[in-house]
Amino acid sequence: MQSSLRRLDGVAKVTGRLKFSSDMVLPSMLYAVPVLSTEAHARILSVDASEALKLPGCVKVYTGRDVPCNRVGYLHDHPVICDDKVRFYGDIVAVVAAETEEIARRAARLVRVAYEPLPLIETVEQALSLERGKVHDQMENNICHQIHYARGDVDAAFSKCKYIVENEYTFQQVDHCFLETECGVSSLEDGKLVIRSGSQNVYYDRGQIAEGLGLPEEQVVVIAPYTGGGFGGKGDISVQCLIGLVTLDTGRPCKMHFSREERFINGVKRHPGKVRMKTGADGNGVIQAHEVYAVLDGGAYTVFGNVVLEIATECCAGPYRFPNIRVDTYNVYTNNGVNGAFRGFGAAQGCFPLEGQMNALARRMGMDAIELRIRNCLRQGERQGLGHILLSDTRMYETLCEASRDPLWTGRAAYRSSRGGVRTGVGVAAGMKGYSVGINGAPDFSFAQGVATRDGRFCLSVACIEMGQGCFTAMAEMFAETLKIPPERVEMMDLCNSELNEETGATASSRVTHAVGLAVAAAGNELVAALREAAARAHGVPEDALQHVQGGFLLKGRLIPFASIAAGCPADIVRRTRVRTKYSDQPSEGALGHPHVLYSSNVQLALVEVDTATGMAHVDRMHVYVDVGRCMNRQQVEGQSEGGVVMGASYALLEKVERRAGRPLNPSFSSYVLPTALDAPPVIENHILEYPEPAHPFGVKGMGENATTPTAPAIVDAVNDALGTHFTELPLSPELLAAVTNPWKGPPADGRPV
On the CB side of 94, how many CA atoms lie within 13 Å of its CA? Predict the structure, then answer.
């Protein structure tokens, strides 16, 4: 384990020196503002911009007719600007460009749109039944993706099970609530359209912008400045095509920056949905059968919803051994906003019901819940629920064993109490996160460029985006370790630029530390080889006479510093490297999709108090046992863990987008409930487990997503432990808890109901 290097961007961020896209101002820049639909499902009869155009400083109002191709998205089902109809409240029906943002906002309020309302599809049941029609007229139905898989004889296995639990789980739509709302600045530079915007994937953005605006990809450059938070929500394009449209039309730079309300109304959210699970075990606590039926509410457009469904389906089987399994899962269109990637990327929607089942089964059997998981957890070489062979060890067994010895768990009987109207319980949940490749089977590449300058500097450029997770710092540490120099000597150069860096995928799905780390190691090794070659040539010795040591090469007992070698070269030494992940991505016979490259595990314990009079639940402690492979920077790992726990606790107890007739009712921080410092668990005890990944040069795995996945089910389990209930929905609001608690009935009876 390395000592923690301070965040390379930390001082610049806290002092305000670091610039985000929202800080950018270009000469002659226009400002653009969207006109958002006030109907959730309706045909557009007319868009009248005449009054807006009378406003001094209003340059132009754009509608769907002005967009060359006007279809983007994962399934090309998302108009840049709506042309024929709107499909959710907040859909973009026009864009106003003006000399100032104030004028643009005034003009946007003057645009008049006439609608013909259409039947509203509000529930997944309505979507599947087609009783209210279709969201997209050209589609056969409202199903945008479905997955079906079966192995073994499920019905026969259930008939032999001694214990069976069957439950329906529901979970809500939530907002990413990143600090920097969607923002971008466009310009024309050297005949190319340049888009600078907060993003998680400049390469995907480039393709989408080119497609929507009818441009060749080589004419589009996308640059991601430092991004003010993403959590998956900036993996899809938002303002990029809109500002590009204005710039191509006027020849002037253009900026669009969503207000917080626009973000809440128009921005991508986490999928809500329903999952029915049936799980059976024999008398020894060995699971024999598992059945899953799940429907995710994808909202009006697909974005990355189909991939979310794939990961959710995988996580409905999770880290456990199911010899007989049947899954049927769907992602459907509705008029409830747009739902896509969110930290966990489907894992949260799969982990919550699965871990609820494991805890319910343990209570039904009277078995220790961690022991049940240990008996059924997967090991390397075994078949995961969807049939593929685990290529690497999940280390779930070891992680569960560590958690089982935690004093909070071994002493949970002492923690469980009833004091007046306050009841206390202890809960547990586990999560397994797969990295790279996965069900859709897309190959995973990474890119890095290492430079040794003639003036003695070491520079690193990587194809990933710094959005608060600390990836630049981790990459610098890896690069420094490869070169055997102090990490403080590494300078990060360039921002993620689609023109300078080769396409390597998104900064998402906790893939960066592992995948981009491969490229950093390769670029570092190639740079060392180039320096060795230069030193050998300069000193007239064979390359194998030079021993790589701290800061340079050793030759006959004398240190030749890297800086002196680079200074003697005619130009800077540059090495660009693109690396594909080293593992096989071939599917196992009879499996659904492709295996992941590797997995990591996370087990969390929760201590929760519930006030039965008010229904308020408060998390007192969270104990986290997480496998990170090798811990490159403990401070950052602990920060990811603590941030993930707070986000997961908020998902369990507080956050929910409320809608009525498709309209969001709480589109502001004054009405959308987020945790404050007082709501965060006062104790988050991190147990960082290091089981280095043998196939990686640094032994690392991922952390960001797995940090939050088991939190909500662990908290729900603690509430159930305290109250003797089996809640199966999120969030556990005070209203929900108060409806079933009664302070005058005393503590729950023995034999807590499931």
Answer: 25
What Rg, from alpha-carbon coordinates, does the chain have?
27
Residues 6+ apart with CB under 8 A from 722: 416, 423, 424, 425, 608, 609, 610
To which H or E segment does residue 132 belong? none
pLDDT at position 581 = 79
Domain assignments of the chain as residue spans, ordered by start: 10-118+182-257, 269-440+587-738, 445-580
Supply 125's token pair.
């049941």
**3-state DSSP percent of the chain in helix, strand and coil, to 5:** 30, 30, 40
Per the CB < 8 A criterion, the answer to whether 44 and 82 are in contact is yes
Residue 674's contacts (CB-CB under 8 Å, 6 or more residues apart) are 177, 650, 654, 655
Token pair in block for residue 599: 């997995």
Summarize pLDDT for 709-718 with one digit per residue, the tens.
999 999 999 9
| Predicted structure pTM score | 0.95
**Cα 121–Cα 124–Cα 126 angle in degrees, nearest 5:** 50
What ranges make up the beta strands (E) of 442-539?
A: 445-452, 458-462, 490-492, 496-497
DSSP 516: I
* Edge-to-edge order in the sheet of strand 58-62: 58-62, 92-98, 30-36, 254-257, 183-189, 192-197, 220-224, 496-497
| Residue 319 to residue 151: CA distance in whole angstroms | 17
Residue carrying structure tokens 């008939």: 159
Q: How far is Cα 587 from Cα 235, in angstroms, rounded to an integer?
A: 26
> Contact 323/378 with Cβ under 8 angstroms?
no
CATH topology of domain 10-118+182-257: Aldehyde Oxidoreductase; domain 3 (3.90.1170)
CA neighbours closer than 13 Å in the CB half-sphere of residue 650: 24
- Per-residue model confidence as pLDDT tens digits over 3-26: 568 888 889 888 999 889 999 999
DSSP string, 654-671: T----EETTEES--STTT
CATH topology for the 269-440+587-738 domain: Aldehyde Oxidoreductase; domain 4 (3.30.365)
The residue ranges of DSSP E strands in 156-250, in sequence order, are 163-171, 174-175, 183-189, 192-197, 220-224
Digit-coded pLDDT (tens) for 188-241: 999 999 999 999 999 999 999 999 999 999 999 999 998 999 999 999 999 999
Q: How far apart are CA 492 and CA 9, in angstroms?
A: 10
Joined together, the tokens standing for residue 135 give 């969201």
